[in-house]
């Protein structure tokens, strides 16, 4: 798996030849590294002897996490005791052979271990380092503890993932996945790509760069017009439940068989099509429905009218009617719906992946699709330290005797 030579296949993944060292745990940094690995980068994941804590998350079969099968895919695992001087030296030796490193320790933690950016750049001056933390590497909040959910709260997202004010006494709901962590991981991957471009392009300066990504800032950057509207008008963006505050009709509507179908008819031509389909041609151009602003002002009333109509159909019939009329729509998908979707299957976005622990596992495919240099799922999440001997031999030139010595000293398991 470790190679630098030109691959003989015609369509090499776009990141083939890039080497990335991952000092990540839980979600954000590992997600960043997985995105890079999916597109062909060689990712060396450094774990503690007990493995990344996320190996213990989610549903399991025979003690093995199904989540990890996808979360750790395409990575080579090496477990190192970074509290030992020999372990730290091995890590710095690995740094010399890598183009980039991604980590999500608390700010300053790696410096305390003697593994901060100065120590790394002493070994590899052009190293790109992506640091993901709760609040960023600077500022008065840098030392505050945070996970993705805190980033969602401070970034303004958790306030918006709720029903409209006054309609519920339940707490604002979570999105359902670790969105704050994953968005930060996306920005880190993007930052690494940008830094590599500036370092290596035609007349690049060959200098190392640091990518500083905060969970809070990653979420805040998604908040569309929230800050401009508050700054200019003092308007606080409020949650709208399933609706869109700036366009109507666009919501989830109930069906007779207990499903929900999203309908996005939020333009004049689409609303006219929907009104025709509902047998309410009288609404087209009528006062109160003749512009998007007017429809937004009467969104609640309009949603009630649409709901009365959708309740007369089962989800499959409703989707067929809407699709025939070319109105954007979809049933609210469950995992089963995603797994069965013909479009996902056709594009390899839902695929069976071989896994030594499970035989095969259903996983999501690679994003983005790059036909001229496609990524792939080369293997599922590895066992803790599975690739240590191969990495130590190929990158650091160690012998079997050297590796046995490291094991006897407890540096590697």
Automatic annotation (TrEMBL):
Keywords tagged on the record: Transferase
The name this protein goes by in its record: CoA transferase
InterPro entries: CoA-transferase_III_domain, CoA-Trfase_fam_III, CoA-Trfase_III_dom3_sf, CoA-Trfase_III_dom_1_sf
GO MF terms held by the record: CoA-transferase activity
Recorded superkingdom: Bacteria
Organismal lineage: Bacteria, Pseudomonadati, Pseudomonadota, Alphaproteobacteria, Sphingomonadales
Keyword Cytoplasm listed: no
UniProt keyword Transferase present: yes
One Pfam family hit: CoA_transf_3
């Amino acid at each position: 798996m470790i190679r630098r030579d030109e691959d003989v296949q015609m369509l090499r993944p776009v990141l083939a030849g890039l080497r990335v060292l991952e000092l990540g745990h839980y979600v954000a940094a590992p997600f960043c590294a997985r995105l890079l690995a999916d597109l062909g980068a060689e990712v060396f994941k450094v774990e503690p002897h007990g493995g990344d804590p996320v190996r213990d998350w989610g549903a399991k079969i025979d003690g093995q996490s199904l989540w990890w099968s996808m979360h750790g895919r395409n990575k080579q695992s090496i477990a190192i005791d970074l509290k030992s001087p020999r372990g730290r030296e091995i890590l710095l030796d690995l740094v010399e052979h890598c183009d980039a490193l991604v980590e999500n320790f608390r700010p300053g933690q790696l410096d305390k271990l003697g593994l901060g950016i100065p120590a790394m750049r002493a070994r590899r001056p052009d190293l790109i380092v992506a640091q993901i933390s709760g609040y960023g590497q600077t500022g008065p909040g840098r030392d505050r503890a945070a996970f993705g959910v805190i980033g969602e709260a401070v970034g303004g997202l958790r306030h918006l993932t709720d029903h409209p004010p006054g309609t519920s006494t339940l707490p604002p709901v979570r999105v359902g996945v670790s969105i704050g962590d994953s968005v930060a991981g996306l920005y880190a991957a993007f930052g690494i790509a940008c830094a590599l471009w500036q370092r290596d392009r035609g007349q690049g300066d060959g200098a190392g760069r640091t990518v500083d990504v905060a969970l809070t800032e990653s979420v805040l950057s998604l908040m569309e017009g929230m800050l401009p509207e508050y700054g200019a008008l003092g308007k606080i963006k409020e949650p709208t439940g399933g609706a869109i505050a700036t366009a109507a009709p666009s919501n989830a509507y109930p069906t007779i068989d207990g499903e929900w179908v999203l309908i996005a008819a939020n333009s004049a031509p689409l609303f006219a099509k929907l009104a025709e389909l509902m047998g309410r041609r009288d609404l087209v151009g009528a006062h109160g429905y003749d512009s998007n602003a007017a429809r937004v002002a009467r969104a609640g009333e309009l949603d009630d009218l649409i709901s009365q109509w959708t309740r007369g159909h089962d989800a499959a019939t409703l989707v067929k009617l809407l699709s025939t009329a070319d109105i954007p729509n979809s049933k609210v998908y469950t995992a089963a719906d995603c797994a069965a979707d013909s479009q996902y299957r056709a594009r390899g976005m839902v695929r069976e992946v071989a896994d030594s622990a499970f035989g095969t596992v259903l996983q999501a495919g690679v994003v983005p699709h790059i036909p001229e240099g496609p990524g792939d799922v080369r293997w599922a999440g590895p066992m803790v330290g599975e690739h240590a001997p191969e990495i130590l031999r190929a990158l650091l030139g160690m012998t079997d005797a050297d590796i046995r010595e490291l094991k006897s000293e407890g540096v590697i398991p």
